[in-house]
Write a structure and sequence with these properties.
single chain, about 325 residues, mainly beta, Jelly Rolls, 2 domains, 7 helices, globular
C-alpha cells in the first residue's frame, strides 16, 4: 500500500556550505560545510531511500518501477518512465555560490543525454545582508559578456537582489545566477545536475586549486537578455492555495495553514510534494496520519486523492509541488 513517504536526506559537502542544514533544518548532519540536503532524488547514484512506514529502506527508483502511475501519475510516468522528474533540495550558502547557469532540454540532451535545468527558489531564511544574483541588469551582447568575463569584471553586468524570508524566484534554463552567502533556500528543479560555472570569485579549494569553469559550454546556453520576470508574486491567503508558479516543468503553491485544510486532488494526475517551510503539523489520508515538521519533505503518491492538512497551534506553511 502506498502512503505519504518521507526519505533520508542526501547530504552534500560543499566548499561554500555552512551549518544551517543542521542548526535550522534539524537534519542529521555529521560532517562540516554541508551545503545541500537532497530531499527527493533519482539523479545518478543519489537515490532517495524511504525513512517511514512499511516501505522503510526501499529506494525511490525501485518504488517507481513497481508502482508506476500509482506513484507518479499516469501521464507523468508515460513521459518520464522510471526516473523521478524533479530534484528537491535545500541549499545553505555560508559563502557565495559560483556564478552559473544551466542548459535547456535541447542542449542538455545533445551534450549530456540529460534533461535541462529550470528551477525555482524559495527563501526559507536569510541573513540581513543576504543577496541573490539573478540575470543581467540589461540586455547584454555576447561580446560584452566575454570582455567583462575576461577582465574579471563580470559582476558589473549582473543583477543583485536583496532577499528576505518568503521571497521566491523562477530561474529559467539559460539565466545566469548565484545564491549569495547567508541564504537558506528551498530549491525545486528539473531532475538534472548539470551546471555551467562561469565565475567562482577566484577562490581556491583546500589543495590550492581553483574549481573548473565551463566558459565555452556556457556561451551557447546563456540567455543574454535583461529580462526581469524572475521574482514571483503571490497571494498570502490563510487556509487557501496560493499559486507561486505554474509552468511546463512544475507547479508550486504555498499553503499557509492556521487550523486545517482539506485538499482534493481528484482532477490531478500527478504525485504531490509537500515541503514544510514554517511550523509543523500532520498530513492525514483515509488510512494514515503522518507528522511533518519544519525542514521535512513528504511525497504524496498520485493515487492518494484526498488529504487533510492540519497545522499545530502556531500554524504551518507548506510548499506544494506537482506536475
Amino acid at each position: 500500500m502506498l502512503y505519504p513517504l518521507k526519505f533520508d536526506p542526501i547530504l552534500k559537502e560543499k566548499i561554500w556550505g555552512g551549518d544551517k542544514i543542521k542548526t535550522i533544518l534539524n537534519k542529521p548532519v555529521t560532517g562540516n560545510n554541508i551545503g545541500e540536503s537532497w530531499e527527493i532524488s533519482t539523479v545518478g547514484e543519489d537515490i532517495s531511500v524511504v525513512s517511514n512506514g512499511e516501505l522503510e529502506g526501499k529506494k525511490l527508483n525501485d518504488l517507481i518501477k513497481e508502482h508506476k502511475g500509482d506513484l507518479l501519475g499516469d501521464k507523468v510516468y508515460q513521459e518520464f518512465g522510471d526516473q523521478f522528474p524533479l530534484l528537491i533540495k535545500y541549499i545553505d550558502a555560508k559563502e557565495d555560490l559560483s556564478v552559473q547557469l544551466h542548459p535547456n532540454d535541447i542542449l542538455a540532451k545533445k551534450r549530456h543525454d540529460s534533461f535541462g535545468k529550470t528551477e525555482m527558489w524559495y527563501v526559507v531564511q536569510a541573513d540581513s545582508d543576504a543577496k541573490l544574483i539573478v540575470g543581467f541588469t540589461k540586455d547584454t551582447t555576447k561580446e560584452e559578456y566575454e570582455a567583462f568575463l575576461k577582465e574579471g569584471k563580470i559582476t558589473e553586468l549582473l543583477n543583485f537582489e536583496n532577499i528576505s524570508k518568503g521571497d521566491s524566484y523562477f530561474i529559467k534554463a539559460g539565466r545566469i545566477h548565484a545564491i549569495g552567502k547567508g541564504s537558506l533556500i528551498a530549491e525545486i528543479q528539473q531532475t538534472s545536475d548539470i551546471t555551467y560555472r562561469v565565475y567562482d570569485w577566484d577562490r581556491k579549494d583546500s589543495n590550492g586549486n581553483e574549481r573548473e569553469l565551463h566558459t565555452d559550454l556556457a556561451l551557447e546556453a546563456l540567455d543574454f537578455r535583461g529580462d526581469r520576470s524572475f521574482k514571483l508574486k503571490h497571494e498570502k491567503n490563510k487556509n487557501k492555495i496560493n499559486n507561486l508558479i505554474s509552468g511546463t516543468y512544475f507547479t508550486t503553491n504555498t499553503i499557509e495553514i492556521e487550523d486545517d485544510l482539506k485538499r482534493d486532488y481528484k482532477n490531478l494526475d500527478s504525485f504531490k510534494i509537500l515541503m514544510c517551510v514554517e511550523g509543523s503539523g500532520e498530513i492525514r489520508t483515509n488510512n494514515t496520519s503522518t507528522s511533518i515538521s519544519f525542514g521535512e519533505t513528504i511525497l504524496i503518491p498520485a493515487k492518494i486523492e484526498n488529504l487533510q492538512i492540519k497545522g499545530n497551534s502556531q500554524g504551518m506553511k507548506l510548499l506544494e509541488v506537482y506536475i
